[in-house]
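In the current project phase, the collection of sequences with tokenised folds has grown. A representative record is quoted in full directly below:
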Amino acid sequence: MRRISNLTRVAVGVASLALAATACGGTSGESGGGGSKEDMGLAIAYDIGGKGDQSFNDAAYAGLQKAEKEFGYKTADIEPTEGETDADKEQRLASLAKQGYNPVIGVGFAYGPAMQAVAEKYPDTTFGIVDSVVEGDNVASLVFAEEQASYLAGVAAAKATKTNTVGFVGGVDIPLIHKFEAGYKQGVEETSGGKVKVISQYLTQTAEEGGFSSPDKGKAAAEGQIEKKADVVYQAAGLSGQGVIEAAAKAKVWAIGVDSDQYQQEALSAYKNYILTSALKDVGGSVYTLAKSVEDEKPLTGTQTFDLKVNGVGLSESNPEFAKIAGLQDAVNKAKEGIIDGSIKVKTE
């Protein structure tokens, strides 16, 4: 099969699937129809938090559902285990490849070392990794311009705040989440002319400590920021972000979601009136794009960057209140144009 490394700009409509992914719930495992090895298709291995996080992992599952429906093959989605090692991840990816699934995608940077090892052993399988770069002739690294979506979230926060204090809650203190914080802070500062203060907090130093999987930690962090007068809180914390949203709703201040349009998530419906917007990251679109490239026998490899230019990131506008805040929509649109034409250079750290 011919391999290509240029980005295929496939128009992917997976946003509506995110809600369906959430509604499915249940346990993860093999899904779809068919039985022979030849009709096995996409398999995904979830990151910490697993399916049901209403965010990152559920977005990946939405992409899997779209591929399953369109291509009519057997798929698999596998949950992580608590306290697992790189060896556990390696075994999981190898098992999927050995069974005949193709492509096999690790959802999250934590799969980096395992994928590096497994991809070399299964050269006829296309592998994908979300949020990390792994070198390999048969590996597609699916990365995003999170800082661009976060800049737009910062613009929205600066326009929505009444106290001139906003918050940021990061799940784990790592470079990937620093990108979210950097873009957000820059958006707030440049929109407000430096008049709005940003309070930042990371929940843990490592993922193993639960930074992406502990709603109670997210809730406590948000409550602390709200006590310091933050009336808009943006979270990039995976499952922990649900606690941030809960705390914001309880205090009747704004929360900003991440990755998926969290205003639309059924499990968060009790808090939706306080979810102003979400910084979108089309993880589902990237998953589907890789699956389609394999189905077309032109598998993508190399680094595939999903940014604002290709609608790989963005800002949701589902909450009707978004359009009611004076100057917010115009400011976001202006920022989008600036980022796309290069007049706004968004920081990553």
Notes: Residues 1-36 have pLDDT under 50 and may be disordered. The longest helix spans residues 175-192. The two ends are 39 Å apart (CA to CA).
